[in-house]
Specification:
alpha+beta, Lipocalin, single chain, 3 domains, Double Stranded RNA Binding Domain, Thrombin, subunit H, six-stranded mixed sheet
């Protein structure tokens, strides 16, 4: 019996290996991070596999750091496929297994190792032992002459020009150029890598040409994008080549002579975003400081009707000579002129009407006006706080209803814990179903009460907006349909943000 148990334990510790085609001809390996519901590489298996393969003699490459040898021939690279499992052996012994497969560019497995360890310590230690056992039978020594790799580039081939920063600066200095032409920089984020590129007319096409990038696969002179002007002067159809050099059709907007925005869609979440590129050269003669000088105030607002009636705070549009509505939705970024329909200064609510021939009716409003609420109820807002500093992308903040009265028990207001900043004024206060119960209005100033105050903010109850709307001469029933009640917050925001706008006043 003891011998049988010993045999079982030995079997649990052994490695099983399958070696196919000669692995000695491969120098590089890519090891992806294992993704779990609770996080990335939570047991450190991917990191430990990289460490062990490095010790064996392989070169580990990262997504954005492929050497030229791999860029020119992806068949010199092996992809590591990791699989893990937990099981139960005889006598209830818990085990942790790691399977490591090395796959070439023809999708053939050139090595496969399986290591199993019984559970006797923390899982990361168990899996590390299994990684060691899975690789224990690998006999590797790099020999580039042992196999003639079939040559195949790692990424698709894109157009290559002879342009450099110097030649493009010369072109931009000596020629009359289109407003979009110039040298631009992106700023690296989680969604966008760093690019410095020149947009010039090249062979009668507007092309974005790489000057430099943090991605090794992009070389100076390669064409990153092709722009084609639409019937609107600032709007361009864009053929963009992604980080992996696959083609992506989108559009770009020249927001002003110094700022270009291009729309992208996140592959994982499906959410659309605007990535911006700042023009670095040539110097722009136009003084764009008017954006701060001329604008007296700004705030947020939201659509009440699909034909362009917008609600906001009365103080946002007080003494307005001109009102500008900035709308960023799934179709792009748009700016419209607007006028005041009605304003109730006492209750700080106002209704605006988009008054612009370029405006087209939007789709059915996806939220309803709800006058019911409870203390402790979860709420959130979408708005454009401090847009001159924080940018013109919408911001989301959430909290609860702390009280159904405001300062001095003012029954017109909710007290909310939702963080508000200047620019949030006039924005919608949504309940957890995504329906509007108020308009974000003000925050309590610490200087007034001579104490440090955090997250004490106020929203005017939505009934005061309804009263104002019903005063319109041709007011009709609000045609709205709740569409986000059963969705998670992030899914609600994807829809609701299309109906919230930035309001600029001068």
């Amino acid at each position: 019996m003891k011998n049988r148990i010993l045999l079982i334990l030995i079997m649990l510790m052994v490695a099983i290996s399958v070696i196919g085609q000669n692995i000695n001809c491969y120098k590089y390996i890519f090891v992806p991070d294992l993704i779990y519901e609770t996080g990335t590489d939570i047991y450190g298996i991917s990191a430990y596999t990289r460490e062990q393969l490095t010790n064996i003699g392989f070169k580990i490459i990262q997504d954005n750091n492929s050497p030229d040898e791999v860029l020119e021939n992806k068949c010199s690279l092996l992809n590591c496929v990791l699989k893990t499992s937990k099981g139960h052996g005889a006598y209830g012994i818990t085990t942790g297994t790691v399977e490591i497969s090395l796959v070439n560019c023809e999708n053939k497995t050139v090595f496969k190792g399986v290591g199993t360890t019984w559970y006797g310590s923390q899982w990361n230690v168990v899996y590390q032992k299994s990684v060691e056992r899975a690789l224990s039978e690998m006999n590797y020594k790099y020999n580039p002459d042992s196999y003639n790799h079939y040559k195949q580039p790692l990424f698709p081939i894109v157009e290559k020009t002879n342009e450099t920063e110097e030649t493009m600066r010369k072109y931009l200095t000596l020629n009359k150029t289109d407003p979009i032409e110039g040298i631009y920089k992106s700023y690296q984020s989680d969604q966008l890598s760093y690019y410095k590129l020149g947009i010039i007319k090249h062979e009668n096409l507007l092309k974005a040409i790489i000057i430099e990038s943090n991605l090794n696969q992009w070389k100076t002179g390669e064409v990153k994008a092709i722009f084609e002007q639409s019937s609107m002067k600032e709007l361009y159809s864009v053929k963009w080549y992604m980080a992996n050099k696959t083609q992506y059709e989108t559009f770009g907007i020249l927001e002003n002579e110094g700022l270009l925005s291009i729309e992208f869609k996140d592959i994982k979440s499906g959410e659309k975003r605007q990535d911006r590129f700042v023009k670095m050269f040539p110097q722009i003669d136009t003084d764009f400081s008017f954006n701060k000088k001329d604008i007296k105030s700004s705030g947020s607002g939201f659509f009440v009707t699909s034909n362009g009636i917008i609600a906001t705070n009365a103080h946002v549009i007080k003494d307005a000579s001109n009102i500008e509505i900035y709308l960023s939705n799934d179709f792009g970024n748009f700016t419209y002129k607007a006028k005041v329909l009605l304003a109730d200064n006492k209750n700080d609510v106002a209704l605006l009407q988009i008054d612009d021939e370029n405006f087209k009716e939007i789709t059915t409003i996806p939220y309803v006006i709800n006058e019911k609420s409870e203390v402790g109820e979860k709420v959130f807002t979408i708005g454009y706080p401090l847009n001159d500093v924080m940018g013109v992308n919408y911001k989301v903040t959430d909290g609860i209803i702390s009280s159904k009265t405001g300062i001095d028990d003012d029954v017109r207001y909710y007290q909310i814990s939702v963080p508000l900043q200047p620019g949030n004024s006039g924005g919608p206060l949504f309940n957890k179903e995504g329906n509007i119960i108020g308009i974000t209005t003000a925050r309590l100033n610490s200087d007034v009460v001579s104490a440090k105050i955090e997250n004490v903010n106020y929203a005017i109850k939505i009934s005061y907006l309804l009263n104002l709307y019903n005063m319109l001469p041709d007011a009709s029933s609000l045609n709205t349909t709740p569409k986000v009640s059963n969705k998670e917050l992030q899914e609600q925001v994807k829809i609701l943000k299309n109906y919230v706008c930035l309001i600029k006043v001068n």
